[in-house]
Amino acid sequence: MTSLSPSRHRPAPSPRVASLLETVSTTSRSAVLVAGGYFDTAAGIGAFSLNSFALAQETGAVARRLHRGNKVLYDVIVNDLGMSCSTDVCTLPAAGSAETDLTPLNASAAEAGISFSVTRERNLRNRAARSMKRRLGEPGEHPLFAREGDEIVFRSRQYAKVLAGVVKDDHVVPRCPLIVAEYFARYFARLRAFPDCALRYVVDINSLADRDKVTKGAEIYLRTQGSPEEEIVLVFADATCAEPLALTYTAYDF
Predict the structure, then answer these.
(1) Alpha carbons 77 and 213: distance in angstroms, whole number
(2) How far is CA 180 from the centre of its chain?
(3) What is the largest distance, in Å, between two alpha-carbon atoms of the chain?
């Protein structure tokens, strides 16, 4: 485990950020993507979005200082599906406006001197559906997924049952864990664009209410596509983001 020790040349990170980066190397170049600022388009940008985006910026700034060769990216996930996944049952109300006002996040990023990308869950859902349909067509190549009636189940080592999706009229409808796994796949694909970085980390800041679905999604990604050089730091926080809890996972944990 890496210790984030202060030096004469760099300020000590705040305790809340130090705990998020404990396992990030200080001796090897790393590519780090920090995801914060999540919000639901139906509710708009609120306290959790603004505070988690500020935490992401602080985390990224410290990650950049850990090694002079580190690369840091920022992303904001936008829930434009309106899906509620507190259980294995996801509900999807009618779609709202396609317009998203990012003004508060843009202003925050400008003040911090960073740029960020935006990932929309609707796009992730469509990509996950296409990918799962291919997997179902090659069951021998993807033994961790099983079709049970209309349900697509992931063979988890943490949970008794993980519902990855359902099949309706020959179409795959992904559930939240599969959508989460898809954004981890996209994130790590972006980090592989830095071949000079030996290690890759995704620091994903989430609401406490989303703990189950993102943990399931992390397991799906790491066991089906992850590599030894990759690590996911799942961060859970309330709306203030004052005392975040970090849980670190690699492919070796499963």
Answers:
(1) 15
(2) 7
(3) 63
Bridge partner list, 84: 91
248: CB partners within 8 A, 6+ apart: 22, 23, 231, 232, 233, 234
The one-character DSSP state at 7 is B
163 touches 151 (CB < 8 A): yes
Q: Which residue has the tokens 């040349």?
A: 9
Name the packing angle between helices 176-191 and 211-224 (round to 10°).
Answer: 50
- Name which of 113, 43, 121 is nearest 76 in CA terms: 121
For 196, the token pair is 């000079």
Angle formed by the axes of helices 121-137 and 176-191, nearest 10°: 100
Q: What is the C-alpha to C-alpha distance for residues 222 and 215, in angstroms, rounded to an integer?
A: 11
Question: Rounded to whole angstroms, how far apart are CA atoms 49 and 104?
Answer: 10
Tokens 């972006």 correspond to what residue? 190
What is the distance between the alpha carbons of residues 89 and 211, in angstroms, rounded to a whole number? 15
pLDDT tens, position by position, 31-72? 999 999 999 999 999 999 999 999 999 999 999 999 999 999
Rounded distance, CA 219 to CA 180, Å? 10
Q: How far apart are CA 226 and CA 219, in angstroms?
A: 9
**Could you read off the pLDDT of 87-122 as tens digits, one per residue?**
444 554 444 455 678 999 999 999 999 999 999 999
Helix (H) or strand (E) holding 130: helix 121-137
Closest to 128 measured CA to CA, from 176, 182, 79: 182
Cβ burial, residue 126 (10 Å; 0-12/13-18/19+): middle
